[in-house]
What does this fold into?
Amino acid sequence: MFMFPKSNILSFIPIIIIPFFLPIPAVIYIGLWFAGQLISGASSLMLSSSATGIAFWAHIGGFLGGILTYRILTAQDEGNRDQ
It folds into this structure.
């Protein structure tokens, strides 16, 4: 999403028996994916079982951790270019 913001993700959408392929901008696709994980994780908090929803929060944490790591590494790389 940050490294290749103008790229597209080719999505498969089955319409009855006809396969339909739709290119979706990566920013929109990943944004919708993140929103889906966030909604699913939040709704799992309302369930009584304590083990449900762990995977949703793991995906959210990995996504945010990846963004943070990318930002730190690119900031260090930009600092090395100035020298």
